[in-house]
Amino acid sequence: MPINYFSAMKNKKILLGLFSLSILMFLGSCSKDDTSNGTLPPVTTEDLLYAYDNRGTFPAGTENFYNALQPGVRVEIPVGTFASKTDSVLTAEGYTKEHVVSIKGESMDILMISPTTQNFDFMDSVWIYVSQLNETAKRLYAYKFNYAVGLNSLSMDMTNIDIKDVFNSDSVKIFMQATKRDNTQTLAPNTTIDFKTMVRFTVEKKQ
Q1: pLDDT value, residue 43
Q2: Over 71-89, what HEC string results?
Q3: How far is 23 from 21, CA to CA, in rounded Å?
Q4: CA-based nearest residue to 49, from 83, 80, 85
Q5: How many whole angstroms from its chain centre is CA 43?
Q6: Distance between CA atoms of 103 and 85, rounded to whole angstroms?
């Protein structure tokens, strides 16, 4: 059947019109999403660093429970709470919690305080968790695996996990999980550990 020239031209014009309309709609959409015109300026951030230094003592009787464990068993021990100080940290720099983008651990050292004869040989791997006071929003904060014996301090590896939901509360609870080392050293009563950590508050920078 022969092609009708005029019908073909008419269809071609319709297709060209629809194509042109699609291009215009696409360009219009792009212009709306474009932030270069200043309507939606990019968010710039600022990091605020704050150092915490808190001590925690293992609950009474922890040594009896821990020393009866088989080597390699992983257990959790609550070691205390501390004030988050989030409001004061932010207020000092002219910010509020509404400006916070994220809160993350920058560094952490744990030091054996007492008894003086105790070191970290009673475990060979350690995980530090933080949570709100009611133990919700529990997050892995730092860890150290298979470290050497004879150490009274450990420089922890950081997870870089956002803990904003934890530090937005007034108090933070610390938990230590430990794997018992395969040796003869025992955990002493009233073991006290110092937790030194640097926390990074990332906030939307003031314009």
Answers
A1: 73
A2: CCCEEEEEEEEEECCHHHH
A3: 5
A4: 85
A5: 21
A6: 12
State pLDDT tens for residues 157-180.
999 999 999 999 999 999 999 999
Q: Residue 173's beta-bridge partner residues? A: 81, 131
CA atoms lying within 13 Å on the CB side of residue 40 = 5
Q: Residue 178 corresponds to which tokens in the numbers above?
A: 């430990």
| Neighbour tally for 10: CB within 10 Å | 11
Q: Choose among 85, 102, 92: nearest CA to 200.
A: 102
Q: Could you tell me the strand order of the sheet in which 192-204 lies?
A: 45-57, 192-204, 100-114, 153-155
Sign of the torsion angle spanned by Cα atoms 149, 154, 160, 161: positive
Q: Is residue 33 predicted with pLDDT exceeding 50? A: no
Looking at residue 36, the DSSP 8-state letter turns out to be T
